[in-house]
Design a protein that fits this description.
The chain is of the alpha+beta class. Helices cover 63% and strands 10% of the residues. It contains nine helices and four strands, in the order H-H-H-H-H-E-E-E-E-H-H-H-H. Strands 1-2-4-3 form a four-stranded mixed beta sheet, sandwiched between helices. Helix 7 runs antiparallel to helix 8 and helix 7 packs across helix 9.
Length: 237
């Protein structure tokens, strides 16, 4: 049954991908101005994705293959898995490709980079003195003091991680819901707030709306799937 669901979701994702390719190529062929801009952006991202894959594969082939496989990994439950399959290469196309390219170069240049997956989301984790994360589509890039070890679900839900892995998972849910608006709305607001906190030495980031919503999505998923008791004081919803 599990394999059958995987095949169905992968097929749905590929059908969506073929549909997007068809719309883009027809739009370019017909010469509509808006469709040409969208079409050339689409082709530019696909070209950058292909080139980055080939270059990164030269340095870290095993991890690149794991990352590529993550493009077609989906949450096992029926609703979330189907939602990911429907949106990943359509509604979320831009951040899926940007996140994939960013993750490829994180694998190449990140210190002792590792790749792991959970719930249809692929994490790239490298060593750093500061614990932090960036979510783009179904790809989460983490910088962590220690190397991954043991069961990844237990690692993600470990309270010593301050809930940041689960929080970043919540951003991937936002990506599904916001689609093409995720980067200019959620991503931009989050980035500007990070810069604001650094410039003015404030600590407001976890309290802004988009971050609280990410916590809410993460809390809902991990409490249902793993029985996590969410720390609302540390990660307000």
């Amino acid at each position: 049954m599990k394999n059958r669901k995987t095949v169905v979701r992968t097929a749905v994702a590929l059908i969506v991908m073929v549909g997007i390719w068809s719309v883009v190529l027809v739009g370019i062929w017909r010469g509509a101005a808006v469709m040409c801009v969208v079409g050339y952006l689409f082709l530019a991202l696909k070209g950058a994705s292909l080139l980055s894959t080939m270059l990164a594969f030269f340095f870290r082939p095993r991890l690149v293959l794991m990352l590529f496989r993550g493009r077609y990994a989906f949450e096992p439950s029926d609703f979330e898995g189907l939602l990911q399959a429907l949106t990943r290469f359509g509604w979320e196309f831009v951040q899926t490709e940007v996140g994939y390219i960013f993750s490829l170069w994180h694998i190449v240049f990140g210190k002792e980079a590792q790749v792991a997956g959970l719930g249809g989301v692929t994490y790239v984790v490298s060593r750093s003195a500061e614990l932090k994360g960036v979510s783009l589509g179904c790809f989460v890039n983490m910088w962590e003091r220690r190397q991954l070890s043991g069961n990844f679900a237990a690692w993600v839900t470990d309270r010593d991680r301050y809930g940041i892995y689960m929080h970043e998972y919540g951003h991937t849910v936002q990506s599904c819901l916001w689609g093409v608006l995720y980067l200019p709305v959620v991503g931009l607001i989050s980035l500007l707030n990070v810069l604001y906190d650094r410039w003015f030495r404030r600590n407001t980031h976890e309290h802004i709306v988009v971050e609280r919503k990410a916590n809410r999505h993460g809390a809902r998923y991990f409490s249902r799937r793993y029985g996590v008791v969410w720390d609302r004081r540390r990660n307000p919803v």
